[in-house]
Amino acid sequence: MIQRKKLTKNLYLKEVDIKDVDYILKLRTDKYLSKYLNHTPNNRKKQIKWLKDYFIRRKKKEEYYFIFQIKKNSSYKNLGFSRIIKIKNDTFHFGGWILQKNNKPWIALECCLAIYEYAFNYLNYKKCLLWINLKNLAVIKYHKSLGAKYVKKDKKEIFLKFDFNNYRELKKKFNFFY
Asked: What's the sign of the alpha-carbon dihedral 105, 145, 125, 28?
């Protein structure tokens, strides 16, 4: 388990903790921010239970849940969060990504780079699969612009893939974030 790790020029990944329950609930229950994600009830006890279950999955290396932070003076400011989930062999899914409103435009890119850096270079996965709600056109376009390739789609979602070679190219292109 990592407490906090700086993986890009400006951002840290901090593994979630029970103390983060209110922050997680605030973003997960925001109608605008969670519009395309699975519904989360605004219930603190259920969220705490979910986090406790997550800690068991984390110990088994089945899932990783991070808060993105930036250091301001001597404290850390939360920017949003995401998960590395549905891990199988050398493949992971990048999911549950929510960023706070009014972040600087570069924050989304650097958050994405931080997740990829951790998954590909620290956990040694080779492939990332993304599944995105078909109505979430901006996120589909965003991931495709970073090099994600079409796999398939169903009635609800599109599936994209992004591998370690894509990440190496992306890292070269945006090396000023490292």
From this structure: positive
Say which residues have a Cβ less than 8 Å from residue 155's Cβ, sequence separation at least 6: 134
Query: DSSP code of 109?
Result: H
**CA end-to-end distance (rounded Å), the chain:** 22
How many other CB atoms are there within 10 angstroms of residue 124's CB atom? Answer: 9
**DSSP-assigned letters across all residues of 115-172:** HHIIIIIIS---EEEEEEETT-HHHHHHHHHTT-EEEEE-SSEEEEEEEHHHHHHHHH
pTM of the model: 0.93
Model confidence over 33-73: pLDDT tens digits? 998 888 899 999 999 999 999 999 999 999 999 999 999 99
- Phi first, then psi, for residue 162 (nearest 5°) are -145, 125
- Burial, 52: exposed, middle or buried (Cβ in 10 Å; 0-12, 13-18, 19+)? exposed
CB 100 within 8 A of CB 64: no
